[in-house]
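hey so i finally got around to running both of the ones u sent me last week. sorry it took forever, my laptop kept dying halfway thru and i had to restart like 3 times lol. anyway pasting them below in the order u listed, first the sequence line then the structure token line for each. didnt double check formatting much so if smth looks off just lmk and ill redo it

first one:
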Amino acid sequence: MSENIKDILAMEAEEAEEGRRTGKKGGPLHQGMPPRDPAQVYSLRMPVERLGALRRIAGAYGANPTALMRTWVLERLAQEERAQRLDDVHDALERLTAEFHDMEKRTSKSATKTRPRRSGKVAVR
């Protein structure tokens, strides 16, 4: 059986060397963790008298204070981004409404210029 293992190892080594020479690589030999989003560390100063409340609330959520602060900041960023998008939509709607009213005025002015005048008489047959 030891010769069988030697043969297998020799074959694996040969395949690995061939892959190194040709640039062809096999699949991963282990299952790695998926890459995380890059992050940067920021320092946050908290008033000492508020740390107790932060720890108490974090404990109620079953989280550590740092994770809770990070969650709160990310939630607030999402809220601000949604608010900004709503402001952008509101501004666009106001511009479109103004343009619509301008077109409506121009259309009604040009329609009165080209519309034939009616006489007050009704044709009887």
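and the second one:
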Amino acid sequence: MILSKFCAFLNVGKINLIYILIATVCIGCNGCSEKQNTQVIDYDKIQKDLIEDNKQKHNVEIKEIKKFVAKNKWPMQETNTGLHYWIYENGTGKHAKFNDVVTISFKVSLLDGTQCYQATDNDPRQFKIGMDNVETGLHEVLQLMKEGDRCRAVLPSYLAFGLTGDSDKIPSSASVVYDIHLLKTME
């Protein structure tokens, strides 16, 4: 009798009242009796693991570059950054330096010989050393050159197109070979 009067007061039927009560109990008790699962994330460990993984990948890449250079019998020098270069034809012009605008022709290829890009002596490219958005290794090697020099350089991925590649012809984490002719240097 009381249940009937209560249902009439709420303007619901007995079955609907039971559903409301069950839903209220379920919602009200959600998580009351169980511990919530929380996972502690060790960011220091993740960072250390990523650093170690990158060191291993770096070492493998440098070994591949050294093997490639030895196979081709190129008398290359290595900079502190891991750039390998060989000036195989000497020019007579002035040295390129930071902030100079240079005009170059080049061929870019992967270590497997796949040619990716080129700019010819008749259709060269121009950019400002240290300022324009080109590969870090290209900025570095050009500062080792003078007008008229021809140079072959092997850029590790971190000095070239990095972890992402160029979304076109250069894959992620790829070392690249540049064959460069420094045509002109302007301050």
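quick thing i noticed on the 2nd:
Residues 158 and 173 are 7 Å apart (CA to CA).
anyway thats it, ttyl
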